[in-house]
Amino acid sequence: MRMRSPIPKKHARIEIIPLIDIMFFLLASFMMVSLSQTHMKGIGVNLPSAVAAPPDPSQKDFTSLRVSEGGLTYIDNNLVDDDQVLPRLYQLSQGNPNAKVSISAEQMAAHGDVITLLDRVRSAGITKIGYQVKTASVQGAGGAPPPP
User: Fold this and answer.
1) Nearest CA among 119, 65, 127 for reference residue 96
2) What is the mean pLDDT of residues 43-47?
3) Domain for residue 98, yes or no?
């Protein structure tokens, strides 16, 4: 008669997860060693360098437009008659298609005059428009003076 042992018999198992971890470690180590031993060699090539043309001193970076009290318009600090503003803007746009314009207004200038100048700049075909904005200075406890 056969008697069984009171100690349970365990079968050996091969765990695959630690084996995978070791294989990835060996793969990474092999790659690092092989990359460090490879010396990249190439042929020296003399490539032409891009030389930018010097900026033309006759063309300025931007044109300054200013609206003062009473609707007077200044282009680069030169007073321009109201009927000459649009032709000057067309001339500027034709001379430089990438012309930049900076619009500013004095504190007592009317809002409508600034908007009219902005419309003229856009109708001349100038799309690069900047605005010079200054904070209102505090005058006593009342703040900025009321608009006219």
Assistant:
1) 127
2) 82
3) yes
What CA–CA distance (Å, rounded) separates 106 from 126? 22
Per DSSP bridges, beta strands 73-75 and 128-131 are unpaired
Number of alpha carbons in the 13 Å side-chain half-sphere of residue 110: 9
Coil vs helix vs strand at 64: strand
The answer as to whether 26 is a domain residue is: no
- What DSSP assignment string belongs to 13-34? ---HHHHHHHHHHHHHHHHHHH
Does 21 reside within a domain? no
pLDDT interval class at 132 (50, 70, 90): confident
**Of 122, 106, 118, 120, which is closest to residue 70 (Cα–Cα)?**
106
Beta strands in the chain (DSSP E): 63-67, 73-75, 78-80, 100-105, 128-131
CA distance 126 to 99: 7
Q: Which of 80-84, 115-119, 140-144 has the lowest mean pLDDT?
A: 140-144
Confidence check: pLDDT of 23 > 90? yes
